[in-house]
Amino acid sequence: MLVPLFLLASSLLAALPQENWPSFRGPSARGVAEGHSLPERFDLARAENLRWKTPIPGLAHSSPIVWGTRVFVTSAVRKDGASDLKVGLYGDPSAVESEGAHDFVVMALDKTSGKVLWQQTAWSGTPRFSRHPKSSFAASTPATDGKHVVVNFGSEGLYCYDLDGKLLWKKDLGDCDAGPFNMDKVYWGYASSPVLHEEQLFVQCDVLSQSFVAAFDVATGKELWRTKRADISTWCTPTVDVREGRAQVICNGYKEIGGYDLASGKSLWMLSSTGDAPVPAPVVAEDVVLITHSHNRAATYAISVLAEGTLTSEHEAMVWSHPGRGNYMQTPLVYGEELYMLGDDGILSCLDLASGEQRYKERLGDGQTGFTASMVAGDGKLYATSEEGTVHVIRAGTTFEVVAKSELGETCMASPAISDGVLFWRTRGQLIAVGAK
User: Which of 25, 77, 261, 279 is deepest in the core (most CB within 10 A)?
Assistant: First the structure.
């Protein structure tokens, strides 16, 4: 039997040791790190499999990233007290009332000890727009290429540092007023994360007053190209895919799901969705890009990375699709020959990657707890983190098996990073490193 090309590539990727986790969900937003054993469980009170934990000020949903011996995080620190956070399954669209002045900070920590190596304040003042009570002003995950660390604070600016904390350049992106298109003066907060590829930086900015995808020279901040998107607010991080015959940056969206030429920003293919507030990043599994959304009307699409023109569900480039099934907040996870999708309510679905056929659909938690962080995987295990800080470890494969549950002890909205057999969780007030000692 012939094995699909993207399944062979997934197997080859699984054999490579993973040291660096340079951006949201690691390389290409895949969320997978192999080559090291990962713990099934931990107990922070007993220091079981706890490497270290370090207090982090402020409120942030941005994920940690790792390069070499350093871990980088961002945060928004309110100057007159702690910021409130309301988690759980609810649909209140109202924004938080004015919270006053903040410091938007970038921090580097030693990966081995958790010691803070440096902290820089990128911006100080009162944020231009408010946030949702479940969001934060630091929801965009930084990105690094081993020479630069780029952080995006939306309306408060795009910043580039070297690995020692020296500011190299900064740029004003204008108003990043992210919020529902049908509610006046309601803002939820900016969350799209930057992506680096070779010497280029890619930013997706889908907001109420402007929507675009752009490329910048990472060394200087010079804008290389900008393509207008006829879209409303999304919270999606773009994904870069480079292969023989095509190099593109892929964007999830509402009115415009599509791929753009890496060098020029020219539109290569486009698909309109039915979900009006998409969040998940595109995930590429060799020759297929997986796109999902679930706000309004859910759907999941498996699209050829060589697609061209305007697509529909019947287009030849549509490998398979699932109308009525999708993720709202979480980026899907491709691991081995399966696609895993975790819903806000803890419903975990396992699908066959090649065909989209369902292998199982089971619940994590009690149905009352929300799940916002995207899953990660490695060493034959999946890690799913609830908003209340429960980490569910699931055996990879087509049979549902929860092998362990452990507690972080705090609210957790951020997706973890993995490096050299250690998982790094950003909780409400700490960065926690978990790995076998």
Answer: 25
Query: What domains, with CATH codes, occur in the chain?
Result: 5-434 (2.130.10.10)
Cα separation, 271 vs 338, whole angstroms? 24
Q: How confident is the model at residue 3 (pLDDT cuts 50, 70, 90)?
A: very low
CA 325 to chain centre: 20
Q: What are phi and psi of 10, to 5 degrees?
A: -60, -40
Of the candidates 99, 157, 101, which has an alpha carbon nearest to the alpha carbon of residue 125? 101
pLDDT value, residue 183: 84
pLDDT digits (tens, 9 = 90+) for 142-191: 999 999 999 999 999 999 999 999 999 999 999 999 988 888 788 989 99
pTM for this entry: 0.94
Instruction: Find out whether 207 and 216 touch, Cβ atoms under 8 Å.
Output: no
Q: What is the pLDDT of residues 277-308, one digit of tens each?
A: 899 999 999 899 999 999 888 999 999 999 99
Q: Say if residue 271's pLDDT is above 60.
A: yes
